[in-house]
Amino acid sequence: MKKLVVSALALTLISFASVQAQTANQTTTDHSAHKEATTTKAAKADQEEKVAVKPEDLPDGIKQTIKSEEFSGWTVKKAFLVTEPDKTQYYELQVANGKENARVKLDKNGRNVG
Q: Which residues contact 104 (CB under 8 A, 6 or more apart)?
């Protein structure tokens, strides 16, 4: 009987310690996930600013590049004016040709910047 009581007490203590360890680990994980999400948002805000632009409102240099043979068959689906932290600007275009999609970065004169 004494062995049964000691075994039950030991099992209860092990269970209690296990639950405490899981709760502490889960709380740490939750705080880490929140901190990472906050840090990612702050870092992204410091990196660049994107403003949507209608494809028909793109500068003439970009329109000429899109009409060139290099972009034959490709159409602009979305366009953004991106401003970097150092104030440099370029246009990011999401283009499609049938089922193919691509992302193109052009300056206001239509030259590829990345």
A: 92, 93, 95, 112
40 to each of 7, 45, 80, 83, 84, how far by Cα in Å?
Answer: 49, 9, 21, 18, 17
Instruction: Quote the DSSP letter at residue 112.
Output: B
pLDDT (0 to 100) of residue 58: 93
N residues, the chain: 114
Average pLDDT over residues 45-70: 88
Task: Please name which of 99, 95, 93, 97 lies closest in space to residue 113, comparing C-alpha atoms.
Answer: 93
| Phi, psi (rounded to 5 degrees) for 92 | -105, 120
Q: Nearest CA to 54 among 88, 90, 91?
A: 91
